[in-house]
Amino acid sequence: MSESAHSNETSGVVWRVPLADLNYGPEEEEAVRQVVHSRWLTMGSITREFERAFADFIGVPHAVALSNATEALHLACLALGIGPGDEVIVPSLSFVATANAVLYTGADVRFADIVGPHDLTMDPASVVEQITPRTRAIMVMHYGGYACDMPAILEIARQHDLAIIEDAAHAPGATLDGKALGTWGDAGCFSFFSNKNLSTGEGGMLVTARSDVAETVRTLRSHGMTSLTWDRHRGHAYSYDVVELGYNYRIDEIRSALGLAQLRKLPAGNERRRLISRRYREALADTGLALPFAQARGESACHIFPVLLPEGRDRLAFIDALRNDGIQTSIHYPPIHQFSYYRRRYGTISLPRTEAIAGREVTLPLFPTMSDDMIALVVDSVRRALTHM
User: Is 265 marked active-site?
Assistant: First the structure.
């Protein structure tokens, strides 16, 4: 669509600058065409090619494609032996799937606070405070594609004999000290949802250096079966056993083909995201907004650009002002521990930094095909909104 006509058919709003947009073109169309022409749609050779390519890109021996990242987190927990009676430490400033995936196993979560307004990732000191005799793992979330303090988290895990799961939904292609996010722990989980840096609509990937984890996840994603329909189709197996209580978490060939096409675009897309983020920081430095991750370590995937309003400012008025200018925004995130379900389950939990920051955060548009004119529109709208608040 043109830069001035990004229509949301559900709401009827026409955004001059949407929050996110697909970087799709002839490559994705051709990838889908080839799958349809092959007449094999469910998980098969294209999925295996996608897994190999993603593993090579991230730098791990094993990558297992799944229908979404929530499933990847769920199976990571199961593959690491997490279940009833166990606890996993998670951030509250994340999408609810981070915590939900733990609960699916019968385990419980304990919420850690964030570092502060300059760093919205989990605070290692808060992680230590949440460790109990029941703790079995730490699940970090690389917020916005920016790295958690993984050296500190690894040391905590070593001292307490804990597993590490990385929710790297925001972070494909991000690194810390030259090492890819998603590869620091026992398993890393990536999302390919429609607004992610690599998008297949729905989809996810679990990566690991551990062959035992990869083998368990491959078995669990397809009903606990010892062979797949694709294997039998090729004559490599004529029957199967069921060795675990598995799930139907399989991805399909169309989404895997889209993933391959998107993976080739990911490095350039991430670089454009980093450039836009730098432009925002320069243009908004004198506005009174707090701009997290200004001194972040490593190379971010810059999935989103969060800003924090000055204390006492009306966030809804700010969002409405940008909306009236045709600028779409979002909030990342309402704290998980304050959702009704989690309040019923765990009662009142105090995470002062998470709560203070979550009430001030607004996410500005950021996507690789965002033009310089769009950046200028957003900056001008933000400045006007702050002036009139």
Answer: no
